Structure formats: structure tokens, C-alpha cells
Amino acid sequence: MRRLGWAFAALAAAAVAQQAADPALLAAVNRMRAVDNHAHPPALPTNGAADTDYDALPCPPAEPIPGTLLLRADNPIFPRAWAALFGAHTASEEVAAKARIQREQGANYPNWVLDKLGIETELANRVAMGPGLAPPRFHWVAFADPLLVPLDASVLASDNPDHKFFFGRETALLQRTLGALGMRHPPATLDAYLREVVVPALERDKAQGAVAVKFEAAYLRPLNFEPPNMGDAAAIYAAGGAPGKAAYYPLQDAIFHAIAIEAGKLGLAVHFHTGFGCGSYFDPRRQPCAVDGRVQRPQPPPYEFRPAPWRPRPLRLDRRLARRQAQRLHRYFRLDLARPARRDCPDAADLP
User: Fold this and answer.
1) Is residue 46 in some structural domain?
2) Could you give the CA distance from residue 203 to residue 199 in angstroms, rounded to a whole number?
3) Which domain range does residue 100 map to?
4) Residue at 110 is within a domain
5) Chain-centre distance of CA 164, in angstroms?
6) Total domain count for the chain?
7) pLDDT in tens, the chain (352 residues)
8) Peptide bond into 346 cis (omega under 30)
């Protein structure tokens, strides 16, 4: 029994020893710089005004996210974060230290934050870029959803208070896009809208540095965009008014189709928000499987998997990664817009 006890003690000691990270490996890991592929970084204030372009669809002011354990003021992770970022140990020290560093860093403050976090490149999901957010550290992901709402959306907005807020935002952002293109109202026909608004808007985003476009459509409708009937969509657009889901969704299918094709031509990756959202009415059925049926890998694939021995190539993280990501996605995958949405996806149950 004594020998057995010594054996267990030796095994326990070995287990404890194995829990300690190898110093050389830990040092190598800590030197790695991350790529943050989804963030909403705030821009620096302009003339004292806080940034409001950090998201196209921020959380509805009347429907705040319920407090969680992570966000409680007494979460012990906050003092650790204050100490790591600002050398502060209390909330008041953190406020003072942050203000001092912001003054010292000026326009470089967002880059300083990335350095402290060990992030090399961040993809900024924003309405537009702003002061302090510039390549090579920040790359723009532009929102495409406002282009899906060229007609009166009051019927869609009547579903719930969240939709009232969100569709109001999308309508205002479309007006902002039209103004940038020298227009006050959408053109009279769908063909003209696609030619004179959608395509120039995406080209403008690309020219201003966008590496991808983002759909937050999961807040607004199911993600099972169908292959469009362009004749029907043109008739719905020409009729105007405030269509309901039965008419508006087929029109949006046609516009989505045009956006996806043009994004591919421009080398812009297409991102989707799925799964979870703020507010009180987000439908958890907004899952990637609704879009999954439209993504195909070309045959034969541009690579092959082999059994062991297999040595993965290390990923090179440099400041052109975001653009290469868009190019690789465009090359290796394609949106197959002629395929119906997957009917085994729970999102497909929410049809007009």
C-alpha cells in the first residue's frame, strides 16, 4: 500500500507539473499578434461629439440588454483589465488614467489600444470610418443592409418596437447613401436603382477602403434569401407604397442577389450577422444554415487533405491580411445564388 501511495503521489506531482505552461512556448504565444475579424471600434470624438457610426443597428434605446454576470460592476475581471491597460486599480483611477493616455496619444489612441491588446489588425464593422481608425491597423467592413430597403418599410417596422427602431435607422442610412451619390430619392425603376445606387454605393465603399460588406439582415428578416424573379421584383418596386413581407422579401431577394454579385466583382467578402442579437425580439433561428445552402466550394478544391504525417503551414499575420482574406474567400468559395435556401434550416420556417 505504501508503494501504491507513492505511485499516486508521483502521478499527482506529474499532473501538476504538466499544468505549468512551457516558458518558451508561452513566450512564443504571447508574441503572436491577433487578427480581430469582427469589432465595432468607436472613432475618436469630433469637436467633442461622440461617435455614432460604430454600428448601423445599435441596440434599441428602449430595449436595453439585460444585465449579465460578466457586465456587473463588481466583476473581478474589471480591475485586472484596468491594471493591464492603464495601470489603474479602481474605477476612479481608471477614468483618470484613460483620459490622460487619450490626451497623450491623441489620434494614435486606437492603435495604442490594439497594441495593449496584442491585436495587429482589426476589421471594423462601421457605417463609416472615423478619426483614429485607419489602415493598416483598422480595415473597414461596410454595411449593405440599407440598400435592401428602398421602399417604405412602415409595414415591416410595425412588427415590434425593435423593428420600428431598426427600420428607422436603415431608412436614414439609405438617405445618407443617396445624398452621397447626389440623389434625394431612389430612382423610379429597380433596374435604375441597381445601376445608379447599389453598384455606385459598393464601388464607393471599395474606393474608401472597404474589404468586405456586412449584412445585419438577421435583425430584420429571415436569412433564407431566395433566387429572385427579377420581373416580379421590378413590378413590386415600381408599385411603390409600403409592401408587406409577401412582397418586400422577394424584392429584397433581388437586391441581395445584385449586391452579392457586385461584391464578388469588387473582391469584397460578404459577412452575415447570425445567431444572437440585442433587443427583446431577435429571433434565434437566424442561423448560418439559412445561408449555408448558397455557399459552394469549387470542384476540384484548390488543396487536398492528406493523412499523417501532415504539417500545417503557419499563418502569416501581416498588415495585408484583411485584403488577402477577401481575395481568398472570393476565390475558394462562391455564393451560388441559383440554389434555393436550405429548407431543413429552422430559419426557413419563418416565411411570409
Assistant:
1) yes
2) 6
3) 33-305+317-349
4) yes
5) 22
6) 1
7) 455 455 545 545 555 555 778 888 888 888 899 999 999 999 999 888 889 999 999 988 876 666 667 778 788 899 999 999 999 999 899 999 999 999 999 999 999 999 999 999 999 999 999 999 999 999 999 999 999 999 999 999 999 999 999 999 999 999 999 999 999 999 999 999 999 999 999 999 999 999 999 999 999 998 889 899 999 999 999 999 999 999 999 999 999 999 999 999 999 999 999 877 888 888 877 777 777 655 554 444 333 333 333 333 443 444 455 455 444 444 434 455 555 555 556 554 444 3
8) no
